[in-house]
Design brief:
InterPro entries: DCL-like. The chain is α+β, with helices and mostly antiparallel strands and 216 residues long. Helix content is 57%, strand content 10%. It has eight helices and four strands. It has a four-stranded antiparallel sheet with strand order 1-2-3-4. The N terminus is likely disordered.
């Protein structure tokens, strides 16, 4: 047993003796850091290195690195985008007021002025407008969707008494594709996200006020 312990302790004794000889000769031995400290230091260096690399890459969102407004193509696109928004904003404002205000009750038909605007700017551009109108257009009505009762939508009332709903978003997309073919897909991709239309509120407020004044 003693011999076994002695053999086990020999390497440790040799290491201590080696350190003693180095100290006696005036040569300091290199300190050994704990593994966890070395690992933490390495990780920190990697984080710093990564941060330095990332800071060296110019960011599109950084105004000091990149100015999109200095790009002629981008400025041209923003000008055309503004033109399209100004073009469609009046009918968007009218449609939203018809559907989402107390201007019309469920089942109520539009006034002559509102109906003319909806037919001229929306319904005629629907991809299936002829099928929607069917035997003939009698009027445009606001009511609850038969399947989604929490949603109000526009309906075509036919001359035979039948009625069918239509999406004004589909009408708008078709209108934009017809009038702005080279810009339509980009505009629709940016402003009709998840089947919802996103427009500038400052345009909307101005046009809503205008339509209310004109249609009193």
């Amino acid at each position: 047993m003693a011999a076994h312990l002695l053999r086990k302790g020999i390497p440790l004794l040799r290491l201590r003796l080696q350190r003693y000889n180095l100290l006696a000769a005036g040569i300091p031995s290199s300190p050994r850091r704990p593994w966890c400290a070395a690992a933490e230091s390495t990780g920190l260096e990697e984080e710093v290195s990564s941060a330095e690399k990332s800071s060296a890459v110019p960011s599109v969102r950084d105004p000091k690195k990149y100015h999109m407004l200095d790009d002629p193509d981008y400025r041209k696109w923003k000008d055309k985008e503004e033109e399209i928004l100004r073009d469609i904003q009046p009918i968007i404002s009218l449609a939203r007021e018809i559907l989402h205000s107390n201007r019309y009750k469920d089942g109520e038909r539009l006034t002559v002025a509102d109906e003319e605007a909806v037919v001229e700017m929306l319904l005629r551009y629907h991809p299936h407008s002829e099928d929607k109108i069917g035997c003939g257009l009698d009027s445009i009505m606001v009511d609850r969707h038969p399947q989604f009762r929490w949603t109000r939508c526009l309906f075509v009332v036919r001359t035979d008494g039948g009625w069918i709903d239509f999406s004004y978003h589909k009408c708008l997309r078709a209108y934009i594709r017809d009038k702005y073919p080279s810009l339509a897909e980009r505009f629709i991709g940016e402003h009709f996200r998840h089947r919802r239309l996103h427009v500038k509120s400052w345009l909307q407020d101005a046009k809503v006020a205008k339509y209310r004044k004109e249609n009193k």
